[in-house]
Amino acid sequence: xxxxxxxxxxxxxxxxxxxxxxxxxxxxxxxxxxxxxxxxxxxxxxxxxxxxxxxxxxxxxxxxxxxxxxxxxxxxxxxxxxxxxxxxxxxxxxxxxxxxxxxxxxxxxxxxxxxxxxxxxxxxxxxxxxxxxxxxxxxxxxxxxxxxxxxxxxxxxxxxxxxxxxxxxxxxxxxxxxxxxxxxxxxxxxxxxxxxxxxxxxxxxxxxxx
Length: 210
What we know:
Number of domains: 1
Shape: elongated
Distance between the termini: 48 Å
Mean pLDDT: 96
Structural class: alpha/beta
Helix content: 40-55%
Largest sheet: 5 strands, mixed
CATH topology: Nucleotidyltransferase, domain 5
CATH class: Alpha Beta
Strand content: 5-15%
């Protein structure tokens, strides 16, 4: 049975007087191309918006549902920040550090400093704010799940733009993930400017084309 995210974690903090709780999540750690994107979302304390009942980890939702919910989140949240780390950063610093860089940027884009951070499975020691790292946070916390939706919708739109810029890889369909179609195109065409050159399938494809 799929877990339904709640405000349980947020309420513990709201009850102690903290009001600005930022949920943080990322998308795009696994693809062979494109940036990793993070979002930070601060929802109003004790929110009771009807659409919150439909919020889930973004991977559990259809594209249409994510799009509808992302619009609601952007409209109703107290603040939303989005940050990215490009393929060059992923290659130079590694995917874990690139994820942190994207999360730092998302927090920096918030309209005001949050009181606490609720982060999906990552810690951000460089940010001097109290924080809680939650394993499977996007399935447990409504704030984190909301961030996962915003980040996913934002990144998917980026990949649609990249599909027009770099046709032939199917980015509109695979969003840069290593699907059989994408791997076959990579072998045939080689890599393009948004491919992550440190990832093994891209390394192999480069070797075939050099």
